[in-house]
Amino acid sequence: MRINHNIAALNTYRQLTIGNSNAAKNMEKLSSGLRINRAGDDAAGLAISEKMRGQIRGLEQASRNAQDGISLIQTAEGGLNEVHAILQRMRELTVQAQNDTNTDDDRAALNKEYQQLSTEITRIGNTTEFNTQKLLNGSLSSSIANVGSNLTTGNGIVNIKSNGAEVLNGYSITVDTTAGTITVNNGAGKSETINYGGAPTGFDTKEINFGSLGISVEINSSITNISANNTFDVTSTGSIDLQIGANSGQKMNISISDMRATALGGATKVSATSIDTKANANAALDVLDNAIKQVSDERAQLGSYQNRLEHTINNLGTAAENLTAAESRIRDVDYALAA
């Protein structure tokens, strides 16, 4: 019989120590509400949980980014709403100036208001901004580069709109006026050629959709001024990228055309028109109609951006909620088991 060691007491002490340790851990879990308080609790679970937390915070920030994007769009659209109102008033004055009951003195008086309104459109374009960034002065529009020189989108190609492709950098547009075709290449080996069916006349424009590439190209009568077979490189140096996802590359590109009087109207700009004579008023009417269409198209584009962002926010919220629930199942304590 051994009397130097009390085995029963040692076993009791060991079990008591284990029980106290487990009780302390359970108390820590119950106090913090977390099943994993340190890496030793569940190393793999901690790693997965932290990765999920990064995604959740990224999704929440992406949602705030999208909200900021909507605010920017609403600011631009508010400015264009006033531009629309001004153009409608200018058109009203133009119709009045075409009436032969007015004398040249009457038309001169009408022209004074007309010119002031034209100046105001340009002022709105130069001063409408969001967080110090100008929105309507053309600094956020796509441009076309030809043989290393930056050209505006008015040299036959009025506008380039992205319907699905977020980044137009690297795209090229080849115009073959002999064959009457336009070819768009996305820079990654994919191209599409469409016959534009003749150039528009007067101040009219024509929109050509390249469905497989997700963009559209709008042309005007100046397309015939392009040499027989010329290639333009497209750059989007001034557009805005909205980070609308938790991961790299999940961006949405926003481009806003120049909405000043010096850019609206087609071949002849609104800023170059007057209504001081009947002939000038007749010419101005077509320019104003084209300018109104341009502003309408731009507002429609902004509306599509906003609608997309609203759906993006909804999706981000759903993703963040589901990911939070998944992270909770890994990291949070089950009170019934821990108690």
TrEMBL record:
Keywords: Bacterial flagellum, Cell projection, Cilium, Coiled coil, Flagellum, Secreted. It is found in: Secreted; Bacterial flagellum. Its main location: secreted. Residues 278-308 form a coiled coil. Signal peptide: none annotated. The keyword Secreted applies. GO terms for molecular function: structural molecule activity. Residues 3-139 form the Flagellin N-terminal domain. GO terms for cellular component: bacterial-type flagellum; extracellular region. Residues 285-337 form the Flagellin C-terminal domain. Belongs to the bacterial flagellin family. Flagellin is the subunit protein which polymerizes to form the filaments of bacterial flagella. This is Flagellin. It comes from Anoxybacillus flavithermus.
